[in-house]
UniProtKB/TrEMBL annotation:
Family the entry assigns: Belongs to the MsrA Met sulfoxide reductase family.
Catalysed transformations (reactions): [thioredoxin]-disulfide + L-methionine + H2O = L-methionine (S)-S-oxide + [thioredoxin]-dithiol; L-methionyl-[protein] + [thioredoxin]-disulfide + H2O = L-methionyl-(S)-S-oxide-[protein] + [thioredoxin]-dithiol
Entries under Pfam families matching the protein: PMSR (PF01625)
EC code: 1.8.4.11
InterPro entries, A to Z: Met_Sox_Rdtase_MsrA_dom, Met_Sox_Rdtase_MsrA_sf
Active site, renumbered: C12
HAMAP family, alphabetized: MsrA
Family annotation (NCBIfam families): msrA (TIGR00401)
Gene source species: Enterococcus malodoratus ATCC 43197
Name of the protein in question: Peptide methionine sulfoxide reductase MsrA
Length: 174
């Protein structure tokens, strides 16, 4: 069985798990940290803004069932791609939107998808999500994993209260 990995940052990692986790061909979705300069950072360290990390999800998937292209399209529909300084109520570098690629093919797919989104006219502001090479990915603490399942009331209140769900409904009709 073939497996590939995709890494996406789109604000709070709690909100980035469920949309991918429920798709056929997804083997796992892990919340964690990437893009920084401190090995094995903690949630508190990342939140302090001193490690350079971004909250992200690492998705292990079967490309024979779901393509990287499909994952990128799902990604766009979870984020505000016009906000480079965080996502919704979450502000700062640790919440910036990034597609981290691990191969030339992933980079090409992400760049082409970003260009299509920019040219679609869906957003009046520029698409500012960055596309960067993947770096070491560090899984977050256990209490962050599968948060939407472990704490559904908190997850739902946060997803709505942060403005994420309303934005998705407004811009993606979802």
């Amino acid at each position: 069985m073939t497996e590939e990995k995709a890494i996406f940052a789109g604000g709070c990692f709690w909100c980035m798990v469920k949309p991918f986790d429920q798709m056929p061909g997804i083997k796992s979705v892990v919340s964690g940290y990437t893009g920084g300069h401190v090995p094995n950072p903690t949630y508190e360290e990342v939140g302090s803004g001193t490690t350079g990390h971004t909250e992200a999800v690492e998705i292990t998937f079967d490309p024979m069932v779901i393509s990287y292209q499909q994952l990128v399209e799902i990604y766009w529909q979870q984020t505000d791609p016009t906000d480079a300084f965080g996502q919704f109520a979450d502000r700062g570098d640790s919440y910036r939107p990034v597609i981290f690629y691990s191969s030339p093919e992933q980079k090409e797919t992400a760049e082409a998808s970003k260009e299509r989104l920019q040219n679609s006219g869906r957003f009046k502001d520029p698409i500012v999500t960055t596309i960067e090479p993947a770096q070491a990915f560090y899984p977050a603490e256990d209490y962050h994993q599968d948060f939407y399942r472990k704490n559904p009331d908190h997850y739902n209140a946060y997803s709505e209260g942060s403005g994420r769900k309303g934005f998705i409904r407004q811009h993606w009709n979802a």
